[in-house]
Amino acid sequence: MRLAEGIVIEKEKTFGRLKFSALRREVRITDDEGNVTDQIKERTYDLKSKGQGRMIQVSIPATAGEKNFDYNAEVELINPVADTVASATYMGADVDWYIKADDIVLKKSTITPQPNKKG
To answer: pLDDT value at position 113?
Structure first.
């Protein structure tokens, strides 16, 4: 069972400041015969979330490109969505949560440069 569109996330309230950590894994495409190909489908990255107080994993499509940001660089998610996958069990169901986004980008500075004053 899956949520049709996932849960749209308010980035700042949910995650707070996000800092880049590392690539966690790459998911490769499987061909019609069940063989794993060299083609990458998506990449999952570890990000430090100030709002969650822990490391989170976020998956982005391979089309967004590989991310090689500096460790602890401040980043932001583009269009993040939380979703679930549920599996029926004898006692009910097990639910796994995951976060997907369209991209991970360096956060733009919100500091406005001050003009030099000559005096």
So the answer is: 60
Q: Specify the DSSP element, H or E, that contains 86.
A: strand 81-89
Q: Where are the domains of the chain?
A: 7-106
Beta bridge partners of 96: 85
Give 69-107 pLDDT, tens digit per residue.
Answer: 999 999 999 999 988 888 888 888 888 888 999 999 999
- CA distance linking residue 77 with residue 103, whole number of Å: 6
**Residue 95 near residue 84, CB atoms below 8 Å:** yes
Pairing verdict, β 81-89 and 7-8: antiparallel
CATH number of 7-106: 2.40.50.390
